[in-house]
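Predict the 3D structure for this chain.
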Amino acid sequence: MTAPAGGLAAWIAAQRWFSAKSHRIVGTRVEDRLRVGGGVVHLVRVELDDGSASTFVVPLRETSPPADAFDDPAFARALLDLIPSGGRVQGEHGAIVGRPASGFPADLPAGVTAHRLGGEQSNTSVTFGEALIVKYFRRLVPGVNPELEISRHLSERVAFPYTPRLAGALDYVGADGQTAAFAVAHRLVAGGRDGWRWLLEALERGEDTRTALERLGARTAALHLAFARDVADPAFDPETITTADVTRWTSAVQAQLDAARSALGGRLPDGVPPGVDGRGLAGLVGAVKLRHHGDFHLGQTLAVDDGAEFYIIDFEGEPLRSLEERRRKHTPLRDVAGMLRSLGYAAATAGAPAGWEAAARAAFLAGYRATAGRAPFLPDGGAVFARALAVLEVEKAAYEIVYEANNRPDWVAIPARGLVTATAALRSDRAAGGS
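Done. Predicted structure below.
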């Protein structure tokens, strides 16, 4: 098997899943090749002009110019067949290994149609009829992948009903024995639609979405209650939030704000102070920290029957963060802040009428708080809750600025406005003497 021809760097740079579009590729090196079906999986080390490097999964059909093998249904089916059998494909150095799970359908037809989904940013997904969806991780990172770890926990340990069942996974095992998640498979949710598209279309039709968003808030709280169960596993059991946690989290918000300023050319939007108030998260001390979704927004949900029900998907975490960061416990209010930011994105994208975003936020929070009740992960007092949420929205909006600068520069204005709004809420709270 030979390396693809010389335009590989340019081809990778043009792909939607390549997440460093603000940087220039200065070098590529093929680290392994694995023949599967009618294609070859290349593991390509990509070096950038800022000195960083990552390994990307680049499956190619043996054509010139390069063509993505995920567009070939036979290639996709050959990978899928490794999962239920625990199969193995040996490459020049490492191997792709199947890992079955209880949710894999025993009656999957041999001729089921494979269809690659469009529109994704950092990964690639392929559906198989109405039975399965397989997500392939384009960036290969050794270690425990939170998508697979959390899916297994929710499906097989706590039986959380509002997430698709885990059907299995594919790992890449290197010559040194290190393992990295290659793909994860789930059962398809019948009638499930991308929550982002559902909401935009509902707004276009002028529908009242408050009841559905209240239900989404309730399902989010149910997820956090599932994570709050003690299961005698240190990776998942809740822990008390300490002053040291709050200090570390505040420093992380500051670092994210500094990164946003850099992504914006060295200047934050007018009205955004350069520093984070250390008191913002202080009221969380004594509550508990949990595993949580980590990258929660409307696109990580499935709406069923126009919002009559919701399922929560994609537990990979924020792709710009390390696996270690994504697996750390935190206040689950980070997920709440993420969804509030997503509602802001929807309002801006759809040109929602005046007052819609405020009503949508209120509905989501009402559903969340009603279901969460007096859960141990919630701080005492509404003002403390609101203040912590505002700080976490600052963090999320700052993260979004960096993400959009790398992937969709034309969208940067949306999180920039969210950053202004979140910092304004903090200033208002301080002016009011909130406690």
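Residues 26-187 form one domain.
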